[in-house]
Predict the 3D structure of the following.
Amino acid sequence: MAILVTGGAGFIGSNFVLDWLSLSDETVINLDKLTYAGNVRNLDSLREDARHVFVHGDIADRKVLEELLVTHPIRAIVHFAAESHVDRSILEADAFIQTNVVGTFNLLEAARRHYDALDDKRREAFRFLHISTDEVYGSLTQDALPFSETSPYAPNNPYSASKAASDHLVRAYHHTHGLPVLTTNCSNNYGPYQFPEKLIPLVIHHALTGKTLPIYGDGKQIRDWLYVGDHCTAIRHVLADGRVGETYNVGGWNEKTNVEVVHTLCAILDTLRPRSDGRTYRDQIVHIKDRPGHDRRYAISASKIERELRWKPQESFESGMRKTVQWYLDNQAWVSGVIDGSYRAWISGQYGHQA
Ligand code: NAD
Ligand code: DAU
């Protein structure tokens, strides 16, 4: 049998594919459009590996989907493919609606037709696992309880609204069509292969290249950070043992302000790669204009997945951050490889003279 992974050349997707094939011999069909955020080089170690079949294509392309589902014995779809960067969605949301909403809709339609045509035994085993985000729940006040699976949806930016729409479609395909779906809503991930437009890899890259470290507004916004390897393990648990139709929140119990995150990165870099002038990387921090509609606080209760599926994060914030900084130090060639002209245009458009 095989699993179909969408978006498996992106940050979490490629970590998931590498993880999956290090633990199992089950074939992965990896469908990815290779947008600016997708990078097949992440999967270089699988180049000669027959268990990994890379397909360059769009989840919105029904023909490609139907062909894949007919050609391969797919028993599950793990759906990562998305436009994922909040700041880009604020600037221009078209691709977010197209991929996150229309793309997910097309994938669900293809999955439903495939599922309906399966024999009873294969229908019993089939799963559609949708990877989503804690951002769909909106923003928490300082003293509010963390998001649970029953928190109301209140997305505040075009990215989170498009993910919320996709979550609702997934739910509806279960309720109306009986498609055996599972949804995970995860907090902020960090680790190897994250595109350097997101806070942690951006700060590491800027620090090492002598640029300013841009913090939006007062930097007291809170995110709940989870090492990507722990997210991949959670997804495997949900796929194997999750109850059909359920959602599972995934998080690291690591609430940190953005200032704390940047200070932690600076401290690790000061130790692992001290500046040549003997000063601290903290000197490079600047506070710049805030993100419009910036959510103040996210926090996730991972109690349900811990209780029902016996999942727990293995990395602490400190160990995960150290591993991550070390990975970026060891993989500067990967960073140079993804920083092309369009990346530079994005950085100067987004930060201008501010950073
Ligand atoms: P990413 O931007 O790094 O990767 C997205 C991947 O999807 C890329 O490889 C891209 O080429 C591919 N893709 C985009 N549009 C496509 C299309 N139309 N058809 C096929 N492939 C397409 O994203 P990520 O950070 O790895 O996030 C993966 C998923 O996890 C997303 O659904 C995101 O919403 C969710 N998520 C991310 C985080 C996080 O902190 N990064 C946290 C929770 C949930
Ligand atoms: O919560 C899960 C979400 O986490 C995922 O669904 C998204 O796909 C993922 O991108 C991430 O969204 P965020 O907006 O939280 O991540 P980002 O790394 O862009 O920003 C993290 C925080 O840091 C946020 O409060 C904004 C702030 N920030 C970000 C950048 C890029 C800065 O202060 N300066 C920056 O330059």
Observations:
- The chain has a mean pLDDT of 97.
- Residues 2-191+227-253+298-314+341-351 form a domain with the Rossmann fold fold (CATH 3.40.50.720).
- The two ends are 49 Å apart (CA to CA).
